[in-house]
């Protein structure tokens, strides 16, 4: 390992080599959504040596997040997810350039956000309209994007895979997203992380539409993490190559 490389990256350097590690160091990745999936994706990118991260989420941590979300502890309830992750990621990599944005991204604000020079986008949004909007506008700019489908209602991590959106199936969110994007002229051309496992019965309850969510889905501790790790792996492998 080169003398100027930090010791904490020595195992990554051993696996990838100096040239590919340098590609990650020079990359800027946008992660939108810092819930169960997005926070794990962002942390895996940070630990892999990505040089710059922009992380976006308006949510604060709630007690119901503790069963599955990386920044959620009893001591962090009430704090902004982006703020907690900002401090955590700098503790992992003090030289990381990190840009936390504490707001919901939709419509024209998506255009403003994507005007930055990103090498990759991770979509971990869990509501349909801003999700489709981010994907369409990233693709229009030629920015590679990987999008997480639904991790809720699933139990088997071995059923998770990374593929083109056109090949996703047995996922209600993927089905709705394909329909929405098809009306926008997009049927393929970006990666998704999805599970072909049927949703567990009785795992969804309808809410009163508080905020942007009209339902709550039962979720186990490890499934959002698996989805997030798969998202990060797609980014890292593409950028390193």
UniProtKB/TrEMBL annotation:
SUPFAM superfamilies with a match to the protein in the record: Activating enzymes of the ubiquitin-like proteins
GO molecular function, one term: ubiquitin-like modifier activating enzyme activity
BP terms from Gene Ontology: cyclic threonylcarbamoyladenosine biosynthetic process
InterPro entries: ThiF/MoeB/HesA, ThiF_NAD_FAD-bd, Ubiquitin-activating_enz
Superkingdom, taxonomy of origin: Bacteria
All residue ranges annotated as the THIF-type NAD/FAD binding fold domain in the record: 15-237
PANTHER family per UniProt: TRNA THREONYLCARBAMOYLADENOSINE DEHYDRATASE (PTHR43267)
Protein name per Swiss-Prot or TrEMBL: tRNA A37 threonylcarbamoyladenosine dehydratase
């Amino acid at each position: 390992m080169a003398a100027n490389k930090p010791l904490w990256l020595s195992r990554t350097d051993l696996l990838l080599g100096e040239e590919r590690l340098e590609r990650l160091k020079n990359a800027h990745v946008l992660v939108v959504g810092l819930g169960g999936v997005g926070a794990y994706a962002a942390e895996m990118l940070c630990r892999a040596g990505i040089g710059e991260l922009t992380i976006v989420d308006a949510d604060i941590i709630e007690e119901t997040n503790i069963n599955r979300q990386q920044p959620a502890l009893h001591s962090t309830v009430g704090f902004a997810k982006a703020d907690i992750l900002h401090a955590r990621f700098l503790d992992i990599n003090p030289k990381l350039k990190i840009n936390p944005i504490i707001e919901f991204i939709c419509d024209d604000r998506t255009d403003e956000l994507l005007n930055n020079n990103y090498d990759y986008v991770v979509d971990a949004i869990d509501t349909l309209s801003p999700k489709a909007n981010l994907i369409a506008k990233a693709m229009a700019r030629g920015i590679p994007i990987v999008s997480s489908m639904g991790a809720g209602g699933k139990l088997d991590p071995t059923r998770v895979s990374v593929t083109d959106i056109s090949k996703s199936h047995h996922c209600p969110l993927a089905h709705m997203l394909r329909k929405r994007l098809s009306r926008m002229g997009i049927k393929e051309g970006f990666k998704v992380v999805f599970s072909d496992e049927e949703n567990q019965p009785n795992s969804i309850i309808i809410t009163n539409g508080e905020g942007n969510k009209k339902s709550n889905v039962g979720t186990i501790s490890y499934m959002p993490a698996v989805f997030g790790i798969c998202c990060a792996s797609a980014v890292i492998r593409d950028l390193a190559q």
